[in-house]
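protien #1 (seq + structre)
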Amino acid sequence: MTLTTQFYTMLAMTGMGAWLGASLDTYRLFVSRAKTARWLLFIHDILFWIVQGLLFFYVLLNVNEGELRVYIFLAVLLGIATYQSLFKRMYIKILKFAIHLAVSLYQFAKKLIQHVLFRPVLLLFKLLIGLITVVSLYSYRVSAFFAKCLFKIVTFLLYPLFFLLKQLLKLLPEKWRLTFKRYFQKSAGFLQKSKKLIITIRSTMIRILKR
């Protein structure tokens, strides 16, 4: 190994030592050991050191074809010490500022999307629901009015027929009259339930409209 190669190796490993120090501070800042489960923390640590080892080996492979010497470890320690003494405080401040800036930009983008996209769509949806409710309510009222009028007209027109049927029923045997009576009672109960259901639907629509 030539002196030039050794010099480049020392320089590269010193830089990698500084990189390792910065990486450790970044890792500590992003991974909270007190709030992270032990098994997950163990996986994080293993992955971190595997990545660092691969990076060191890649740099060393490009500089001196992967040959290990004692001075390489000394150069790494020198890089870590240089980072700790000269660049650590400044790097942590810059990193925290970058994280704060990224979080602020994310919050701003989130609020912007909510105000520009989601709220207008939600407002439009509410207006559409309100319009459908109003149309449905008034359609129900108009339909109920016409149905009531039609019922009265039909009742008036069929009154002679009902009167005739009533008189004919009196001529039937008692057993038949009881059968017809039970049938009409069941029909009346069904109509009463239908009326209650319609009233419930109407009340619900009115409450929705008032909101």
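ok now protien #2
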Amino acid sequence: MSNIQPDDLYNQLCENASTRKKKTLALVHEVCKKQSEAEVKDFSLGTIAALMSDKGGLSEQALRNKNAEPYRLLINNWAEYSNTTTKKPKKQTTTTINDEILSQISEPTVKALVGMIMAENRKLKNENNLLKNQTCITVDMRNQKSNSLANNDVVVVSAIDDLTETEIEALKDAVSDKFFKERGWTTDEQGRVKEKGYPVYKAGYVTAIKKILDEI
């Protein structure tokens, strides 16, 4: 990490710079200082260029040019000063308590069933909230794709819409060829699951999950 402070480097770069370069350096310095105080410290060239655009600053391509090295040095210095880099920060994914619970379940079938229960629970909560907020409401439980009603009083609530990525992956794993092969399971046209001829799940198990996945 560089020992020189951003303010000191800025002053050094301005010493022999032209008036135009001093103006650009000042703009880069100002934008980087604000980024250092932001919650997400993004010092990528694209972001810095975007923040300078409305003030007549350089474009991202211009910042990458050979003669823009002083500006990049200043940006890099600010990034180091803020304990980060000039790479674009990765977006943080929001993890729900349901996702955490599902991540602890190693058995794909159990994970899929728990995920379906969670989705159904969210659907019921959504319906309950709708009923609280409206005095007159009709809840249509039919598949949205087959529902052609245009009545504004009809609200379609589908558990499928509430499935998280974790729950969708759990459903896929539960009926995957790899999982069946590992368990030595077989299935038939009616969706039954058998192991060495003995029933594991009744008719409709595989077909029901696949229908859900087809609707996503």
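The first helix runs from residue 6 to 15.
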